[in-house]
Amino acid sequence: MAKRLRMLMRMGNLTRTGQVGDGREEALADYVLSHAAPGDVDDVIRVIDTYAYQQATLINVGDEKGLLLDAAVRRAKPRLLLELGTYCGYSALRMARVMPPEARLCSVELNAANASVAQRIWDHAGLGDQVRVLHGTLGDDGRTIERLVTEHGFGAGRLDFVFVDHIAQAYLPDLQRILDQRWLHPGSIVLADNMKVPGAPRYRAYLREREGTEWRTREHRTHVEYQSWVKDLVLESEYLPSGAAASGGTGPAPA
């Protein structure tokens, strides 16, 4: 509890830089390289969870909510995935473990130090070319979007799965940027973490306003990562084809 409270006191630094500010992210990479079996994604995930419980709390999706992420990726069977907010690479490990062998994941991270930590951990896990990290943001005047298009094959209707787990204020603007690019197709899934803590009310309201017409959203009740007393929500939203509401659609019903 005390560790969690100390981290919450550093939320301003997290919002500005994407790191807690005490060196725990670099220490995590060293810990993984020292304790996890090389080339074993499952063991790397286990070691990260152990570090978060026993050494220093992390702001990745965590083990409880990670199961929701795993299940959503399995349902989507994606070939092209986008992650907004790499942090230390934990959620990308989970996605890489369950996505189809031919799938590719591009993870966008604002903080260069986080991107470096994630790459060290992925290299140790043996992910190879399945996962790429891009230092940037979708809101950087089109630079990162252009790289996704020209270097990673993003285009109209090609994006199957999006995991949103970065700065809460950017959730809705970045979703709108993705829609403006027309990357999604009917049936694409967007999973968004931290709907209660710290919360993204504009994003949640946007999806609720379009429920059954443009989106079908399921709200998963869960907890903030690595503890069981602070509640959180994860939103799983399916992008609907035109006319899906009239025909009944195929996505999950709201919880």
From TrEMBL:
Keywords: Methyltransferase, S-adenosyl-L-methionine, Transferase. GO terms for molecular function: O-methyltransferase activity. Gene3D superfamilies: Vaccinia Virus protein VP39 (3.40.50.150). InterPro entries: SAM-dependent_MTases_sf, SAM_O-MeTrfase. Transmembrane segments: none annotated. Pfam families: Methyltransf_3 (PF01596). This is O-methyltransferase. It comes from Streptomyces pluripotens.
